[in-house]
From TrEMBL:
SUPFAM superfamilies: Cytochrome c. PANTHER family: BLR7738 PROTEIN, CYTOCHROME C PEROXIDASE-RELATED. It comes from the Bacteria. This is Cytochrome c domain-containing protein. One of its GO terms (molecular function) is cytochrome-c peroxidase activity. Pfam families: RoxA-like_Cyt-c. Coiled coil: none annotated.
């Protein structure tokens, strides 16, 4: 880290970090724990997906549709249908992510110029995936088929919110849920929350209603509060935020109330520990 650490204070902060989340701790959601073994020699971390009351706009994006552009017709052989000219963002994401991972591993980690697992026959062609040299996902990659639910809209779960009917896929987590991240390097990841609505970690440890309603985004750093400095360079962009009355704005500072009940000395200790990660 680019600054001197108060070792004694950081040690006290580590104890707080490892507490249960109900007591202001972080490790229950953000600690490093081994996850599933996805493929040989590649491990994952277990990171929970849950709704902690934060902004919901990014989640809603998964239900939108978009033009697929150069990805039109792309598909995962024997796994997904070719992408339409306008398709659901969830389908585009699934095809892109699964295809990229599969190609990388099938190529032995080397750069690949042959889109073996994400190419479709020309329209009207009688060619099959096999005749084009496309391959099935090997056993070590079969879990990718369930990483995204690619069921058709008719098979999706439908729910109503704010008077509008939206189709949600059966494998999607509850509305407004996001994956927690491990906190390695968190001191360098400001602004915070998935939508970047909180400028510092110190601000994140305040109740939502007490957090800043706007802040400037720039290069100046606040070492004490761990994040963006309150005063930035001239002409820096100012981000205006909404409160918990509008958590679907894309810029709501609401949610993630963990650690807000800690005492000021406990918060300082926790921040010192987070600087070491």
């Amino acid at each position: 880290m680019p600054w001197k650490i108060d070792a004694a204070l950081a040690t006290r902060g580590k104890v707080i970090f490892e507490r249960d989340s109900a007591e202001g701790g972080c490790s229950g959601c953000h600690g490093i724990e081994d996850g599933e073994q996805r493929v040989p020699f590649i491990k994952t971390w277990r990171t929970p997906v849950q709704n902690v009351g934060t902004d919901t706009r990014e989640y809603d994006v998964l239900t939108w549709k978009a033009k697929t552009g150069v990805l039109k017709g792309a598909f995962i052989p024997f796994a997904t249908a070719p992408l339409k000219e306008n398709d659901e963002i969830f389908n585009i994401l699934a095809t892109s992510v699964i295809g990229s991972i599969a190609e990388h591993l099938l190529a032995g980690g080397a750069p690949s110029t042959n889109a073996r697992v994400a190419a479709a026959p020309e329209p009207g062609s009688s060619a099959t995936p096999e005749s084009l040299g496309l391959v099935r996902l090997p056993p070590t990659l079969q879990d990718l088929l369930t990483a995204f639910d690619t069921a058709s809209t008719s098979e999706a779960i439908k729910t109503k919110r704010q008077g509008a009917e939206r189709a949600f896929r059966s494998r999607l987590p509850p509305w407004g849920s996001y994956e927690a991240r491990v906190l390695q390097g968190i001191w360098a990841a400001a602004p915070y929350l998935h939508n970047g609505s909180v400028p510092t970690l110190a601000e994140l440890l305040k109740p939502s209603g007490q957090r800043l309603s706007q802040f400037s985004v720039g290069r100046k750093y606040d070492i004490e509060n761990v994040g963006l400095a309150a005063t930035q360079e001239p002409l820096s962009e100012t981000l205006s935020l909404t409160d918990c009355s509008n958590i679907n704005s894309g810029n709501s500072r609401c949610g993630h109330e963990y650690g807000t009940s800690l005492s000021d000395p406990e918060k300082r200790a926790l921040l010192e520990h987070l600087k070491t990660l």
